[in-house]
Specification:
alpha+beta; 354 residues; 9 helices; 7-stranded antiparallel β-sheet; Chemotaxis protein chec
């Protein structure tokens, strides 16, 4: 029953406008399968992949996207300075996959870096198109940087240069992820065959951050595969969806300072309420200059003071420099005002409204 409700409500998201025209036989058959959701909309059931359940919170997706954009910018600068060539790196939408699905999609041969990423418990995979690696090696060795021999492993000299290149990429990764999580990347090994890189269980959910790289006229792909279980455990020790602030300590202080300046310069309406009294319209029509309205309130009863429509204080009516004024006598307790008692109990002198 629970699965049926989930299928009807959460997984069937096609509204009426998305249904096929009713003129064709196929459309009529599909229309018969349509069901009414709890909100009264006609929707069609859609296929659900149990191998890829949605486990990413919006906060985690946002934080990883920010880290990916930062990594792309750092890569473009770092590789451009190293190769003395125009380099463009663009971050692509992240995706969630089972590890074996990601591994099967990798080219063979390729350049795979097996990376330890403490404090994450599980290693990650840094995959870069092998033709890009050969092009970078040739450029660093003085050639034009056009990859030719792609179907072979690195020689001893090429392997040392490739390791240096991957370590440079990992340095940029450390800097890009420091707002999300302080990591210390360590390149453990370089492999060419994806079949030798099953560092995680086949069905373990992973987050893949893909990037498109253009070095001069040559283009290729780079991807970073992280264990979702390990990342979730580190960002949220209680197992809840991670919701960590992606800002650094200095940025938080600067944002707090700016917010305080904005709040200090914001003007709020302060209203001292004398009384509220319902009157019939017939009596209101008889009111004129000199009419007296009796209030259901004692003379010495405190006034309610509201700020932006929210009651925050109790006050007494008085006079200050020949003008009407109020004196704060009490700050309402947190449960008595919606701002949680954020204001202190100092006496204030404000011009009131009656």
């Amino acid at each position: 029953m629970e699965l049926e409700e989930r299928t009807n409500e959460e997984l069937a998201t096609t509204p009426d406008a998305a249904l096929p025209p009713a003129s064709s036989a196929d459309a009529l058959a599909l229309a018969e399968d349509a069901v009414l959701s709890r909100r009264g909309r006609r929707v069609l059931p859609q296929a659900y992949d149990f191998r890829r359940p949605v486990q990413l919170s919006k906060a985690l997706v946002r934080s990883l996207s920010i880290a990916g954009e930062s990594y792309a910018k750092l890569l473009a600068i770092s590789l451009g300075n190293t190769l003395r060539l125009p380099v463009t790196v663009s971050a692509q939408p992240l995706r969630q996959q089972a590890f074996d699905e990601h591994a099967r999609g990798l080219a063979n041969p390729t350049c795979l870096g097996i990376v330890e990423l403490p404090p994450l418990k599980s290693p990650c995979l840094l995959d870069i198109d092998v033709k890009l690696v050969f092009a970078m090696i040739e450029k660093l060795l003085g050639s034009a940087g056009t990859a030719t021999d792609l179907k072979r492993e690195f020689t001893a000299i090429e392997a040392r240069i490739a390791r240096k290149l991957l370590q440079r990429l990992l340095g940029d990764l450390r800097e890009a992820m420091q707002r999300l999580l302080a990591v210390a990347p360590n390149l453990k090994a370089i492999e060419h065959n994806p079949e030798y890189t099953y560092i995680l269980s086949a069905g373990e959910p992973c987050i893949v951050l893909p990037f498109a790289i253009e070095i001069g006229d040559l283009g290729g792909q780079l991807s970073l595969c992280l264990s979702l279980t390990s990342l979730d455990a580190e960002l949220s020790g209680d197992g809840a969806a991670p919701n960590r602030d992606a800002r650094g300590a200095e940025e938080r202080r600067e944002d707090s300072r700016r917010l305080a300046l904005v709040l200090d310069s914001t003007r709020a309406e302060v209203v001292a309420e004398l009384a509220r009294l319902p009157l019939p319209l017939a009596q209101l029509r008889q009111l004129a200059e000199g009419s007296i309205i009796g209030l259901r309130k004692q003379v010495d009863e405190p006034l309610k003071v509201t700020v932006g429509g929210s009651p925050l204080f109790l006050a007494k009516m008085g006079r200050s420099h020949s003008k009407s004024a109020i004196k704060i006598t009490r700050v309402l307790r947190p449960r008595e005002n919606p701002l949680g008692g954020a204001l202190d109990g100092q006496h204030l002198s404000n011009e009131g409204k009656r």
